Recover the amino acids of this structure.
């Protein structure tokens, strides 16, 4: 690109093969603005598509480019995001900040956090239908380096144009300068939480914190620790900002960083998992475990989630919708556990009203720590709101 005009042709979006619900827009230099399109929905939506192209082109001053659009049934949201990215790249400007008055209140549960590539529009609208506790629109590892701008546009318009009620909408931003663009674009959107990757020390978080403070943003932060250095600084990271609501561990990168191999037994990461969990609890925030890399054997997924719950974690990352129900089962108490937990909570509350102290339930002592564990178990099983 060069200032004042388009130097080379480029494309945003995808077409061909098995691509669905997307539109590929090829942008080439031209003496004046013009466009053409073919669509799998023709002629039904031709007039609407034409109006959309002309409206957004007008917003950018109709730059001197020609657009060739190949539509495979893209939603209006996708058309708007792709066109915005195309005109921004052609004009050499950033994606406009998304300013929203929407504020979605999450349930407080983060048992399942479903990662969705932000540059794959066919997946994004369906993500809430699987009822994860949180959806993470991923701008980082799942997006090619040359596609970051269009992915950011997609995340921005998805945050505004889809209904995220009952789900915590998260975005994993990039690190470095691209991450600064991501944050500036989404700071005033309806996104509830930013996932900050590759965090190694408190300064990595505080730099983002300052950007958000300057913008008056409401967004919360979850640092993602993915290295040996980050693990060493876990408590410093967890406690450095009031925006931090949880601390997460990325085992794929961490295991690579220490020169190990990731195994089902997880012995290679036991130190890191314990260190990050302890740091989160010491800082008074929620500890979140890494993703489980498999999604075909759901028994393994459920067992991984159960082990995470028993260790003290409150959720894991999901790479496929198939994992969600298994994860929720893993974090849900068994009927026997839930019955005992409810009995502990009810008995303890009654004792407090009557002025009692330590109580006994089924022949075991039930003090304040026991009560708190029982209450947390009920909440993780969907019986309460963690706020």
């Amino acid at each position: 690109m060069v200032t004042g005009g388009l130097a080379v042709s480029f494309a945003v979006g995808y077409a061909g093969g098995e691509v669905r619900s997307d539109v590929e827009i090829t942008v080439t230099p031209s003496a004046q603005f013009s466009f053409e399109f073919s669509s799998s929905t023709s002629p039904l939506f031709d007039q609407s598509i034409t109006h959309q192209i002309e409206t957004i082109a007008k917003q950018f001053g109709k730059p001197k480019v020609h657009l060739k659009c190949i539509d495979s049934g893209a939603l209006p949201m996708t058309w708007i995001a792709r066109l915005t990215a195309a005109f921004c790249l052609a004009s050499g400007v950033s994606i406009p900040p998304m300013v929203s008055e929407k504020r979605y209140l999450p349930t407080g549960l983060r048992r399942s956090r479903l990662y969705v590539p932000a540059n794959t529009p066919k997946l994004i609208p369906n993500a809430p239908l699987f009822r994860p506790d949180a959806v993470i629109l991923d701008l980082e590892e799942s997006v090619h380096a040359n596609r970051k701008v269009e992915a950011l546009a997609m995340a921005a318009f998805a945050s505004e144009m889809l209904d995220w009620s009952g789900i915590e909408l998260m975005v994993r931003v990039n690190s470095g300068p691209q991450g600064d663009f991501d944050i500036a674009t989404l700071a005033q959107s309806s996104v509830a939480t930013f996932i900050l990757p590759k965090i190694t020390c408190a300064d990595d978080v505080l730099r983002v914190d300052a950007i958000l403070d300057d913008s008056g943003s409401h967004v919360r932060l979850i640092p993602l620790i993915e290295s040996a250095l980050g693990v060493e600084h876990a408590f410093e990271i967890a406690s450095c900002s009031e925006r931090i609501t949880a601390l997460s561990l990325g085992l794929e990168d961490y295991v690579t960083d220490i020169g190990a191999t990731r195994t089902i037994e997880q012995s290679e990461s036991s130190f890191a998992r314990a260190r990050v969990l302890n740091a989160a609890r010491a800082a008074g925030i929620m500890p979140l475990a890494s993703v489980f890399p498999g999604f075909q054997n759901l028994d393994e997924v459920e067992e991984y989630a159960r082990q995470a719950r028993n260790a003290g974690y409150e959720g894991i990352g999901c790479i496929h919708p198939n994992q969600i129900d298994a994860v929720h089962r893993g974090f849900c108490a068994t009927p026997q556990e839930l019955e005992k937990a409810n009995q502990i909570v009810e008995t303890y509350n009654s004792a407090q009203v009557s002025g009692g102290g330590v109580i006994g339930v089924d022949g075991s002592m039930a003090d304040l720590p026991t009560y708190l564990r029982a209450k947390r178990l009920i909440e993780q099983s969907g019986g309460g709101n963690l706020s």
